[in-house]
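Thought: the user wants the 3D structure for the chain below. I'll pass the sequence to the structure tool as-is, report back what it returns, then summarize two notable features.
Action: structure_tool
Action Input:
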Amino acid sequence: MKASRRTLVILTPLAIPLAAALAIAVYAHSQKPKLELGVGYGARVACGCRYIEKRPLASCYKDFEPGMEVIRLRDDPKRRTVTASVPLLVSRSVRFDPELGCQPEPLK
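Observation:
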């Protein structure tokens, strides 16, 4: 087997996963504005569900629109804050204020 053919045999199996990872990264980057909007909306909906309606956080998922299944919620009862995120990509937090309702936390 020639050296160039051996190199091709070795590199081809590595190139396919690398190309797939690159395609996923480019797609995720192009979707980031939509994801930011979605997690902001999700955090606000979940905050209202949790602190205004006083429902358990797990029940707040049923208030989401179709397509929001990738969003995960986290609750901080001490701070009265709900954080919605798409893991490793974006997250937004909303804090409940008794006078003002659910208000977005400043971006870091």
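Final Answer: Structure generated. The chain has one domain: 3-104. The helical segments are 3-52.
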